[in-house]
Design a protein that fits this description.
single chain; 191 residues; mainly alpha; Serine Threonine Protein Phosphatase 5, Tetratricopeptide repeat
Amino acid sequence: MRRHRTIAAVSRCLLAATLAMLIGVSAAPLAHADALGRGTTAYSRGDYVRAARELTPLAQRGNARALGLLGFLYENGFGEPQAYDAAADFYAQGAVQGDPFAQAMLGLSYDKGHGVPQDFILAYKWLNLAAARTNGHERDTYARFRDAVASKMSKDEIRVGQRLAISWIPVRFEPSLRAERGSWDSRHPSP
């Protein structure tokens, strides 16, 4: 009888632990969603300091959308000191995970040379990816940006940018990732 009660008690403990774990796992995405919602709401209200405070922990854990938004805050000096290098790195970390906003902003950073060397091929690549991963007005906007960059490029450069976009594969978050810096020729020597 004592053995039966012990097994029943252990079973209840295991069930309670399993339920606690499942609740914790399912609550984590909700907490991320809440913090992301609070951050974007604060941004839209012009409360950039709070937006940065809400988005920073998410960005540190690799939330691609938070990385893109935090990059925008740094690029424009909203709630954080203006820092183009930091913005480009945040954009790159979100872009490689597939966030279209981060991809578009990284593309525009390469177009302007903000935090990275001006590089129309990489600008085209990231803007092309952003346009391909969105719909509606957002897609049209990113496609217009891409086409504006293409107007500054040769046909061969456009082909290289298209090839880079076609061969691109999203990757996991890597906190040490930085945006590509240096000239195109130094990063991709001719054969």
